Amino acid sequence: MNTVTRYQDHAAFTLRLVFGVILLAHGLLKLIVFTPSGTAAYFASLGFPEVLAYLTIALEVGGGLALVLGFYTRLTALASIPVLAGATWVHLSNGWVFSNQGGGWEFPALLVILAAIIATQGAGSYALKR
C-alpha cells in the first residue's frame, strides 16, 4: 500500500468515525432525552407516521454504531440518506443557519452529503468489514 492510499484510507476512517458519532449522538438524544414516545409524538405533530420515529432511532443508534465500527459502512451510509433528507426537509422553513429557532437546514443537508461521500468511498482503515 502506498502512502497516498494509506492517507486516503485514514481520511475515510476519520470521516466515517465522525459521521457515526454524530448519528449515534442524535439517536441517543431521541432515545434517552426525548424518549421514543416523545419522539414519536413529535414526528406525528409534523405529519409523519409515528413508526418512522422508532425506525429513525434504530437507524441512528444502530447505524451510528455500525459506522463507528466500520461494519457495512456503504450500506449504512446509504440507508441514512432518507432519514437525513427528511431532517433537512423538516428544517427548511427555519432558514439556513442551524442556530436559528428550531435549527436551520444546512447541518442536516451537510450530513446528507457526508453520507453520500461515505457510501461512495467506503470504510477506510480500521473497519470490521471492508
Number of helices: 5
Which percent band covers the strand fraction? Answer: under 5%
Mean pLDDT score: 96
How far the N terminus sits from the C terminus, by CA atoms, comes to: 15 Å
**Secondary-structure element string:** HHHHH
Give the biggest beta sheet: none
Q: Which stretches of 5+ consecutive residues score pLDDT under 50?
A: none
Overall, the morphology is: globular
> What structural category characterises the helix and strand content?
mainly alpha
Rg estimate, integer Å: 16 Å
Number of β-strand runs: 0
The helix fraction, in percent, is over 70%
Total domain modules: 1
Description:
The protein has 130 residues and is an all-alpha fold. It has one domain. The protein is 73% helix and 0% strand. It has helices at residues 3-33, 36-45, 51-69, 73-91, 106-121. Helix 3 (51-69) crosses helix 4. The mean pLDDT is 96.
Write a brief caption for the model:
The chain is built from five helices and no strands. It has helices spanning about 5-35, 35-45, 50-70, 75-90, 105-120.
Relevant terms:
130 residues; 0% strand; single chain; 5 helices; mainly alpha
What is the element layout, followed by pairings?
Blueprint: H1 3-33, H2 36-45, H3 51-69, H4 73-91, H5 106-121
Helix pairs in contact: 1-3, 1-5, 2-3, 3-4, 4-5
